[in-house]
Amino acid sequence: MKAAVLVGKSKFEIQEVDRPEIREDQIRIKVLSASLCGSDLRTYHHGHPKVTLPYIIGHEYVGVIDSIKDKTNTFKVGDVVTIHPAISCGKCEYCSEGDHNMCENRRVLGIAMPGAFAEYVNVPIEVIERGTIIKVPDDVDPAVATLSEPFVAVLNAHELLETTVGDDVVVLGAGPIGMFHCMLARNRGANRVVLADISQEKLKLVAKRGVADEYVYIESEEKLIEEIMEITKGKGASVVVVANTSPISAQQAVKVAAKFGRVMLFAGFPKANPNLGLDGNLIHYRQINVMGAYGSTPSQYQKAAQLLFQGKIDATNLITHHLPLEKINEGFDLMTSGEALKVVLDIGNRED
Fold first, then answer.
1. Which residues contact 34 (CB under 8 A, 6 or more apart)?
2. pLDDT > 70? residue 39
3. Which of 120, 198, 233, 279 has the most CB atoms within 10 Å of its CB?
4. How many CA atoms lie within 13 A of 38 on its CB side?
5. Can you give the three-state secondary structure of 97-117, one letter per residue?
């Protein structure tokens, strides 16, 4: 089979490799589409501590079941499916409580096992028991379904935030994840959604897609605070989402939050310096709730997929480029330059 193998820093090679053999405890998937993720981009440029090169990465994908021995007869060969890349153990304390995103023995496709930037990929059959494999309806574009995994993480964040009718929501970071935050905040009834970023070009690209009510260029911290306070009539935002990895954004989030505001630290921060330097007095005197969100649960995955499949969240808004597997390096270069939002690799088709 054909696979995009990461062989070194910022370099994939298209290679002919053996199609993965199938065991009884696995499902073999013929990949239709796979999207490029921000975490893939970091691995592409900087490597990953748990990935030894050469290796096949990639974890946002949709495919056709090519081989399966499902005793429940829930899924069969020919089904088009999307599968969450994180496989929980189902046995630890957290899994027993339903908090599969905190599983102590979690394995992730593209890290613990070869990923989806290839024509075929194997996944553990326990995804059926966990509820993290979902049939994709015939009328849903596979490219849209590849975005179920990033979107469900956003859903987890807003369920923790309890984003609701009347909230003024500010999202810091105008990438695909920031766009998803805006779209879901609107879906949950937010009064006003503001998207802010340090890049004017990125804001222009995103503004054409109409995901927010206001777009704010972060020329300086003072200007950001001034504009948010003007938009919210001096109150500040009831919900602020830090949809990027900058500690400075985390500091700004607290400063633009209203009294009783909720601040979500959605992304991880640089390992070399994860200390954020938040203003403790603002958090204390405004009674601001600062929280984090990581991953998602199987029930949330089911819910997120339906929101995408039913078009209640328009994931096509995020996709700017379709490329063949052979142009995967070009896809990552487009992401690096900021020209692309979401890049989808078209790898196979249902009829083959």
1. 58, 60, 61, 62, 116, 117, 146, 344, 345, 347
2. yes
3. 120
4. 15
5. CCCHHHCCCCEEECCCECCCC
pLDDT band at residue 349 under the 50/70/90 scheme: confident
Beta pairing class for 11-16 and 2-8? antiparallel
Q: Are 236 and 252 in contact (CB under 8 A)?
A: no
pLDDT tens digits along 130-184: 999 999 999 999 999 999 999 999 999 999 999 999 999 999 999 999 999 999 9
97 SS3 class: coil
Distance CA 103, CA 340 (A): 33
190 near 199, Cβ under 8 Å? no
Task: For the chain, count helices (H), then strands (E).
Answer: 12, 17
8 A C-beta contact, residue 146 and residue 60: yes
C-alpha 150/C-alpha 61 separation (Å) is: 11
329-341 confidence digits (pLDDT tens): 999 999 999 999 9
Q: List, in sequence order, every beta strand (DSSP E) within the chain.
A: 2-8, 11-16, 26-35, 60-67, 80-83, 86-87, 107-108, 120-124, 133-135, 168-172, 192-197, 214-217, 237-242, 257-265, 289-292, 319-324, 342-346
Amino acid symbol at 62: V
- What are the Cα distances from residue 257, in Å, to 214, 253, 296? 16, 6, 25
Q: Using a cut of 0.85, tell me whether the model's pTM lies above it.
A: yes
DSSP string, 162-213: T--TT-EEEEE--SHHHHHHHHHHHHTT-SEEEEEES-HHHHHHHHTTT--S
Please return the burial class of 41, using the count of CB atoms within 10 Å of its CB with bins 0-12, 13-18 and 19+: middle
Going along the chain from its start, the domains and CATH numbers come out as: 2-147+318-346 (3.90.180.10), 152-292 (3.40.50.720)
CA distance from start to end of the chain: 14
Q: How far apart are CA 315 and CA 43, in angstroms?
A: 24
How much is the pLDDT for 273? Answer: 87
210: Cβ–Cβ under 8 A, 6 or more apart, which residues?
none
